[in-house]
Amino acid sequence: MSTTPTLLEVEEVGAPTSGPPTSTQRILTRLVHDKAAVLCLAFLLIVVLMAAFAPLITKLSGWGPYEFDSSAVNSALGGVPHGSLGGISGEHWFGVEPQNGRDLFARIVYGARVSITIALSATVLTGILGVVLGMLAGFYRGWVDQLISRVMDFLMAFPALIFMIAILSSLPAGNRPVLLVLVISAFGWPYLARVIRGQTMTLANREFVEAARASGAKDLALVFREILPNLRSSIIVMSTLAVPGYIGTEAGLSFLGVGVTPPTASWGQMISSSVSWYSVDPMFFAIPGAFLFLTVLSLTVLGDKIRSVIDAGEAA
Amino acid sequence: MKRSTMLAGLLLSGSLALTACSGNATDAAKGNSAGPGGPAATGGTVQVLANAGFSHLDPVRGFDGGVNNFYRLIYRTLTTQGAAPGADGTKIVPDLATDTGKPSDGGKTWTFTLKDGVAFETGAPITSADVKFGVSRAWDPEIGIGSPYAKQIIAAPASYQGPYKTGELPSIETPDAKTVVFHLKKPYADFGSVVAQNTFVPVPKGSGAGTELDSKPIASGPYKVSAYKPGASLTLVRNDKWDVKTDSVRAAKPDGFQWTFGLDPATIDERMIAGQGTDANAIAGTIQAASVARIQTPQLKQRTLSGLGGCTTYMGLNTTKKPLDDVRVRQAINLAVNKQTVRDAVGGSTLADLATSIQPPTIVGRTDYNPYPSQDGKGDVEAARKLLTEAGHAGGFTFTLDTRAQPKMQAMAVAIQQALEPLKIAVKINIIDTSTYYEVIGTPSQQHDAAITGWCPDWPSGATFLPPLFDGRNITAKGNSNLAQLNDPGVNKKIDEIAAMKDVTAANTAYGELDQQIMKLAPMVPLLYEKVLMVVGSNIAGAYLHDGFSGGIDLVSVGLTDAGK
Q1: To pair with B562 at 20 to 30 A between CA atoms, which of A95, A258, A300, B268?
Q2: Which residues of B touch A273 (CB under 8 A)?
Q3: What single string gives the DSSP state of each residue in B258-283?
């Protein structure tokens, strides 16, 4: 939004004929011409499809995520999978979990569900919290800003991981995924809110906002019709970059044993239980590890690309 | 009343792992010829690599397979278990006393005579007054948290609170320095086994108040503590006041022992398998399931010891909760549980046997039978479904299974959950923190429908297995071990009948019958008899698994093949 808006333009913000320069279409066009971004998008699409159609996919593969297959593990050798590469076969595409023979493919697919759901829910929640509180602080300043900023400082100074472990282990089991989302979001929103607050402060002093105010627009209209559309690019970039962080946090908490409870499949939990098997069944670690790594990498690279596209758009 | 699954047992036997070392063992691979069962040479220092430290060094406080085994190195009791593999290891033999006790007054009074030449590490002779003082410490409410048998069996005024608070215990008499006489509440035929408990360790009169003995024990056995850092290390050196002529049980070949605590189980496995340097002289606790596949080479197999842990891992079914109050439902669950998958969850056939009866095979007088058979222990879903339909639960139900926040326990819970799924029984797994687990499941108001736990006998007799778990009159508001809350008149009556028996052998056989009688009521699902599987260093000798100490390596017999290494 580098052009000086006229009164006319201000009233037309949001109208399809004169969309903002950082339009979704332009971002997408730029991205599909970038090989790395396309690869990342393709991988993420696979993961999201896996998560969405998990029950269908496991019907095809023939094994559910909780189904035991005693014949696939060698009881006499401590439950190590039969066959090389952790029991990879036509029956079990990614091999099986040691000791119980649960199908790794099914657990990866269902694990994707947990990771994606938790990370996306946390992103939406932190997005809403961060944007609303950030704009409130930036727009109204004064005591509202003081209050919100101090809460943000407090939360950001907090040793979040330690506190999350403490909270999650002391809370009753309940609905773990919801708890995870709430806890992750509670510590995640200040990072977005702080950026939003700063940008709102600059935007609130810009001529087009002054103009809208002079023409009698109410606070609500100013915030949602003048300021919010101009924050869109920041929100997109910050959120895309936050998703991999939340996936990592969920996996980390599950790894530490305070995430989703068994028998629910989770990548972090799989990695955690694979630790003692690293020497006899390295695939048990490699497969969930690779999925977690690639998902986080794809999201990070994609977020980076979106940012550079948007930055380029703003510079133009 | 030793409550311990093999899981706890695993940690404990981890603390039994010995590493032998005396300086630079560069060519450690030699000495393979003798193997762990060979004769031990005199001398050298045995080192122990362990995960968890000892609960207590005070014999009246500590009470689990790990410390019981360790206590024999530094303490002596009136009688003790034998030092040999198999059934000979669980036979009660005289230790400080000249025999296993003389009953009189119909088994209500027991007299023991002390051997000559027995002494504390201070050089002071062990007198009957010291034995009496040691036993009476068990009544102290703060100290007497270990073996409960002395308190349960020996008569004492209701207000008696131990020697430090109340004074002398009138029901133990010491007519002279060598003779000690116990007066019991009621006749007890097997009192000779009771005095092998750690509560019967002599303590010099007047000492050992508070936590004194936990940091500096007063040794009566072949070794004494020279340095102890709780949670880090423990060093034992020879107690030169111990006279081998007075002790027919302890070989005590090494010159000392050195424990290292706080090692990661995976690290211990790595070190034991590699057997490099001083670790060549090592023995270790039960290995992790993930290491089983790695010890299949002939060289490692030669260094492997395996045997039953002597405990039963089971799922208690709370008979007061609906629909588990219906015996048919409990029987159906017994039929349906797939013990194969439960076994795989703890590490497969090398780390556990499938359990069929309440008492494990190491118990004297046990009958081998299977009241709820299925092919290969995989569960008989059809028979179970029939019973459930009869009971009116064909549509299934939901129950909550308490389990510890430990990967192995959770894996067992998941295996049970999976096995009951075809019957539409939804198992809700309730994970409880390890530190509060026993407190929660031992409190009837807090326990749920079922719980996975284990039980080890205090000496290999049904007396320490069936009454604590199934006597309906022992259900307490806290610290309850009758998880099933079974209060069956028939079972209670049989328990009383057996307790009144004068003949220990007949009583043990009767416990075998009681086992079957209880399993008809299906108050629990016997899951596994877990095994110990240990890799020891190549220079270890005289090592065997002792049935009386949860399958740990008998510490008083172990030593080095070559003491100079």
Answers
A1: B268
A2: 407
A3: EEE----HHHHHHHHHH--GGGGGBE
Q: Is residue A21 reached through a cis peptide bond, with omega within 30 degrees of 0 on the bond before it?
A: no
Give the residue among B384, B380, B417 at the shortest CA–CA distance from B402: B417
Instruction: Decide: A66 and A252 in contact? Cβ < 8 Å.
Output: no
* Coil vs helix vs strand at B301: helix
Closest CA to B530 of B296, B347, B340: B347
Binary contact (B296, A77; C-beta < 8 A)? yes
pTM, full prediction: 0.79
- Nearest CA-CA partner of B74 in B204, B248, B257: B257
**Nearest-angstrom CA–CA distance, B244 and B136:** 28
Would you state the pLDDT for residue A214?
Answer: 86
- Report which DSSP code applies to B522: -
- CB contacts, 8 Å: A169 with chain B: 433
Q: Which helix (H) or strand (E) holds B491?
A: helix B489-499
Strands (E), chain A: 73-74, 80-81
Contacts with A261 (C-beta within 8 Å, 6 or more apart), sequence order: A173, A176, B429, B431
Rounded to whole angstroms, the Cα distance separating B59 from B51 reads 21
Segment A134-161 mean pLDDT = 88
What tokens does B121 get? 């590490």
Which of A264-268, B245-249, B380-384 comes out lowest in average pLDDT? A264-268
The two structure tokens encoding residue B164: 């430090």
Contact A99 B266 (CB under 8 A): no
The amino acid that residue A244 corresponds to is P
Out of A77, A275, A276, whose CB is closest to B348?
A77
- For chain B, helix, strand, coil in percent to 5 are 30, 20, 45
**CA-only gyration radius of chain B, Å:** 24
